[in-house]
Design goal:
Layout: H1 3-16, H2 18-24, H3 53-74, H4 78-97, H5 114-131, H6 143-146, H7 148-157, H8 185-200, H9 202-215, H10 221-240, H11 250-261, H12 271-296
């Protein structure tokens, strides 16, 4: 498998994931329609569920574009790669055309969505380069794409309603750790960051990265690392939240599907495969116990 063909496809997926990754780390969110353009001490920064259909379509496009591009370039054909470039360009054009009121102030935005303007042209360039280096068509199964729905659940269902949505009541909520006075501040900050990253859609980009890594034959450790990061979200919930209903139970399902994708292509039932499965299970238990010991040492009993 040519290195340039693999590198260009991987770079394209990383580039289309750029807007989600940047906003997850607090960069460029104020220039996108579903975030507040300025900080407010009374309202959450976002992302918001908007009443505008074009703005919601843009949010879904930015959220799901990494998975769409990963799925198209995984087929290896030149036509599929060019289709990925066309879809990326369409989302970019939609981002330039969509304008609406700020969800926190109600004022019309004037700033350009620079995260899209920076990342998507780079992705199109990488896709055009990848189109010149086709790869053999392979079958990848259903698991990597089935992981998209649980990974995107927080972004689809956990966004606060816009303050200026006249068709519904204004509802704001945030996840806060129980007994917050006894929990170290860095753990509270970590929980808030993971909550915000889940709403923005960072787990979707992780699933896309695992899918393209599997499709291009890169190390299976990438899939295992992605699954471990996805498990960090609910692990923090379990140890820091009083209400079990607030635990992000959809992400362990996404992690399980990612691990299933990263398994060897041929899984034969026999003593060898059973031994490997037993090793994986024991390793998972050890890792979870280690995480529990580290976190519980900082969180006092309630």
């Amino acid at each position: 498998m040519p290195e340039l063909a693999v590198a260009s496809r991987l770079y394209a997926v990383l580039a289309v994931s750029g807007p989600v990754v940047l906003t997850a780390f607090g960069i460029g969110g104020g220039d996108l329609p579903w975030f507040c353009s300025s900080e407010s001490p009374y309202l959450p920064e976002g992302p918001y569920a908007l009443g505008s259909v074009p703005a919601e379509a843009l949010f879904l496009g930015v959220l799901l574009l990494p998975v769409v591009v990963a799925g198209l370039v995984s087929y290896g054909s030149r036509r599929a790669v060019l289709s990925a470039a066309l879809v990326t360009g369409a989302v970019l054009v939609l981002g330039l055309l969509v304008s609406g009121p700020d969800p926190c102030t109600g004022q019309i935005r004037t700033a350009s969505p620079w995260p899209l303007l920076v990342c998507y042209p780079l992705a199109v360039g990488a896709l055009l380069l990848a189109a010149r280096h086709p790869l053999p068509t392979r079958r990848y199964g259903f698991a990597p794409w089935a992981a998209v729905l649980p990974a995107a659940w927080g972004a689809l269902c956990d966004r606060p309603v816009s303050a200026f949505d006249e068709r519904s009541f204004t509802v704001f909520f945030d996840v806060a750790p129980g007994s917050s006075g006894d929990v170290p501040q860095w753990l509270c900050a970590a929980l808030q960051w993971f909550t915000q990253a889940d709403r923005i859609g960072l787990p979707v980009t992780l699933v896309a990265l695992a899918a393209i890594a599997h499709a291009t034959g890169l190390s299976r450790w990438i899939g295992a690392t992605v699954a471990a990061v996805l498990l960090l979200f609910p692990v923090l919930d379990v140890f820091l939240l009083d209400e079990l209903l607030l635990v992000r139970s959809h992400l362990p399902l996404a992690a399980l599907l990612v691990v299933w994708t990263a398994r060897p292509a041929r899984l034969e039932v026999g003593p060898g495969s059973l031994a490997r499965m037993r090793t994986v299970a024991v390793t998972a238990v050890v890792v979870l116990c280690a995480v529990w010991l580290v976190v519980s040492s900082y969180v006092p009993s309630r």
